[in-house]
Amino acid sequence: MNHAVWSFACFCLFEAVSLEIFSLDGEWKLLNSNSSVSVSAEVPGCVHTALQRQGFISDPYYRFNDLNYRWISLDNWTYTTSFSVRGKGKAVLVFEGVDTISTVSLNGVIIGKTDNMFRRYDFEVTGLLKDQENVLQVWIMSAVTYASQRSRAHTEYRVPPDCPPPVQKGECHVNFIRKAQSSFSWDWGPSFPTLGIWKGVRLEVFNTLRVLSFTTVPKYDSGNSSWNVEVELFFDVVVASKALVLMSIPLLHSEEFHLSLTPGQSRKSFVLQINQSVSLWWPFGHGEQPLYELEIQINMEGGETFNAQRKVAFRTVELIQEPIPSSPGLSFYFQINGRPIFLKGSNWIPVHAFQDQVTTDMITVLLRSAQKANMNALRVWGGGVYEQDLFYSLCDMYGIMIWQDFMFACALYPTEKNFIQTVREEVTQQVRRLKSHPSVVIWSGNNENEAAIAADWFNISAAERPLYVRDYVSLYVENIRDLVLQEDGTRPFLVSSPTNGVESEKEGWVAHDPYDPHYGDTHYYSYYNDCWNWTAFPRTRFASEYGFQSWPSFSTLSKVSVTSDWDFSSNFSSHRQHHEDGNQQMLKQAELHYILPNRSDPVQRYRDTIYITQVMQAQCVKIQTEFYRRSRSDIVEGKGHTMGTLYWQLNDIWQGPSWSSVEFGGKWKMLHYWATDFYAPVLSAAVEDEGDLLIYAVSDRHSECHKVKAKVKFYSWSSFDAVCSLESNVTTLKAGGSTLVFQHPISALLEQCGNCTRRSCVVTFHLSSPEGQMISPLNHIFLSSPRHAEGVQKPDITFTVKDAGIVQSFVVTLHCSFPAVYVWLDVDDIPGHFNVNGFLMLSNTSTVTFGAWRPTTAEEITANLHITSLRDVY
Ligand code: BMA
Known about the structure:
By secondary structure, the chain is an alpha+beta fold. Among the domains are: 19-203, Sandwich (Jelly Rolls), CATH 2.60.120; 208-312, Immunoglobulin-like (Sandwich); 382-517, TIM Barrel, CATH 3.20.20.80; 682-788, Sandwich (Immunoglobulin-like); 798-873, Immunoglobulins (Immunoglobulin-like, Sandwich). It is 20% helix and 33% strand. Helix 13 (582-591) packs across helix 14. The chain is globular. It binds beta-D-mannopyranose. Residues 186-188, 383, 409-410, 447-448, 523, 545, 648, 659 line the site of beta-D-mannopyranose. Residues 28-199 form the Beta-mannosidase-like galactose-binding domain. Residues 793-872 form the Beta-mannosidase Ig-fold domain. Residues 1-19 form the signal peptide. Exoglycosidase that cleaves the single beta-linked mannose residue from the non-reducing end of all N-linked glycoprotein oligosaccharides.
C-alpha cells in the first residue's frame, strides 16, 4: 500500500504556503467481515468497483448480476491504508465523502463516525500521528443492515414505505439512511447499495489557519441599480492572527480588507460593491454566459499567503407566483434578469450506480447533449446525489439552469434528533458548495413527498395524518428551508415537487391536491391513455415531470446480455424492467398507432421492438411537450400559462428500459433527436381540434421582430410530389408567446387537395419569413394513425457513406423508392450522433451527417449502419 502519501497536492480551493496537504487517495487494502475477501482498492472508490477491477466479480450490470452480487452489500467491509507524515501543527483528516455508515480509526483510536454520504467529514487527529507508519482504517457497515436496524429501532410509528415494489428487486428502508435513495433500486435502476470511500481523503496539517470554504454570491441592489458580490470565507483558525485580504475581479473591481481572526471556526463576510456595468449571464438561447474571475489573496501578518479564484456571474432569478387575469390560482414562472423564461429541459438522475466510475467525459457528453437539444434547464432529481462540482461548472458555462432538489424522494422520513442533525449539516454544506453557481436557480426540498402525504400513497389513517404532516413540516420547512434561507437569500425555495407553491404553504405545507394545475408545478404520467389525445394532458403552469418509457438500443443492451435474452418475453427483458407492467404499457401505447413488429427473424424482431418503443416515446413526448409550449400564453377554462417543461428523464443509470432520452453510454434515443426540434427557440406545432387543423407559432424570443407565415404541404404515402401546398396569411410572431397562424377544417383541406384522404396523406409545415426564409424546423402531423395509413409501400432505403472532409464527420446519402416515416439510422457502437434522426423522408434522396466522438472511417460506418423505417418492421 504505498500510494502517494507524500505527493503534495492541493485539492482545496486555496493554495497556501503554510498549509500542508497530503493526499491519501490511491491504493488501499479492502477486507470483508470474515476476511475471506482481501483485495486492493482504489480510493476514491467503492467495494463493487474494487472487486470488479481485481477480477473478483465480473460486470455488475451484466444480465442478472445485480441479484448475484447482492451479498456484497449485505457484508461489512474495512478499508485500510498506512502512511507517514512529517508536518507539525494542527492535523485534520478530511473525508470528502464516505458511503455511508462508517467508523474511522487512526492507529487503533476511533477518530469519528460517518452516517451521511452527502457530507464532508473533518476529523481532528492532532497528537495521534506518528512519524512513521500511521494506520488509517475505515470500517463500513452494510447500508442495508443499518437501514433495517434504524427502521426497527423506530418503534413509535412506522415510516413508510418499508420496501420498494417487488418488480424493482430492491432493498428496504432506504429512507432511514442518508444515501442516494435510488441505490436501493428504483423504477429505472438496479439495487446496488454501494459501500466505499467515494470521494477524496486527505490530511491537512497547519499552524495558523486553513480555509474551509469560500463562496461568492452576486446580489442585485435594485435601489442603486448596481451589484454587490458577497464573499464569504470559512476558516479553521489555530492562533489569533491578522491579515490583509485582496479581492479583485479584473476590469471590474478590486478592494482590500483587514481581517483579524480568533482561534476556532469562523466565518467572515465581505461585500464588493461593483460600480461598473456588468455583462449579464443568460440561460442558453437567451444570451451569453459571461463568467468573471474573482481572485482572492490573503496575506497573513506573519508572511504566509493564501490564494484562490472562483468564477462569478451576474444574474437575478425570481419565481413569480401572482394572480393571472381570468384564471383562478397563481402563475408559476421564472424570471431571469427580469425577463420571463420558459424552462425547456429534462430531469437528471445519477449517471452511474457506482459514482466513483463517473468520468468527466460522461458528464460532459450528457450536458453537451442537453444543450444540443436546445435545453436550457435540468432538474437534479431528489432521489440521487448532489452532483459533483464539474457538473455545475459546465452548466454555468453552457447556460443550463439547475432546479436543485434536496435528496429525499417518494417516501416519508424519520425526524429523530440524529437524523435531523445530519441532514442539517448536509444541507449547510451543500448550499455553501453550490450557491456560487449561477446555473443553480432554485432549491427544492424533496421529490413527491408532499404528494405522497396528500394522495395518501402509504395508507395512513386520518388519525395519524397530523403526525406525518408535523414530521414533514419539521424536516423540510423548519429545518431545510430555514437553513437554506439563512445561507442563501438569492434563490427561490420550494418545499417539494410537485407542489402548489405559496398555496401549499397556505394549506399548511401539504396542499389537498399538489397536482392542481392552477398552482405550482405538476408531475403527470398516463401510460395506457392514447398520448395522441392532447386534450387529456393537464394544462399545468409548469410540467416538471412527464414521460414515457422506451428500451435502449440493441448495441447498448448487447453489452450486458446474450442471444437467449434478445426477446421481449425473455427473463432478461422482464428482469431489467423495474416499472410494474412497463413492457406491456410500451407495447399497448405503441399498438394504438403502429403495427407491432412481426418479422420472422427473432433478433430482427427484438431490434424492431426496441425501435417501435423509441418511436412511441418520441412521438408521445413530442405531442405532450408541444402542447405545453403552445399553452404558454393561453388560458383555457382557467388553465394555462405553462412556463416550463422538464420531461422525465434525460439520462440512464444502466442499460435498461426507462423514460430517458439518452442511453447509458451517451447514445441518443429517437426522443433526444426530436427534442432538438420540439425545443427549438421558434416552434411550429399543429393539432387537430374539433375537425380543424390548427398551426401555432411558439416563440421564446423576447422581441416581436418577425413576420411569419405557415407553409403547409400535403404528401401522399405513395409519391414524393406534394399533393398540394398552402400558405397562411402573414402574422407577427408574438414574442414569448404562442400565436395561432393557421386554422382550417380538415375536411375542406382534403377536398381542396383533391387526391388526399386522412389515411393516404401526411401534412408537413413550417414557419417562413415573407421572403421565404425558414424560421422554425420542419414539422409534420398525421391525420390518422400510421397503422391505418393507406398506400404505404416498403421504401427500400439504400445508402452510401462518405467522409465529409471535416474531422470525424461523415455524410450518409440515403435513397428510397417511396416516402418513409420514422427513418432511423443506428451505427451500433460507434459513438457520436447524427444531425437528424427518426425523420420523415419525403424525397427519394436525403443526406444526413454523422459526427463521431472517436476516429472512425466511412467503411466502419457502412459496416455498422442499420436503417429502419416504420414500414420495415412488419
Ligand atoms: C417520478 C419520478 C421518479 C420516477 C418517475 C417514473 O415520479 O420522481 O420517482 O422514476 O416518476 O416513474
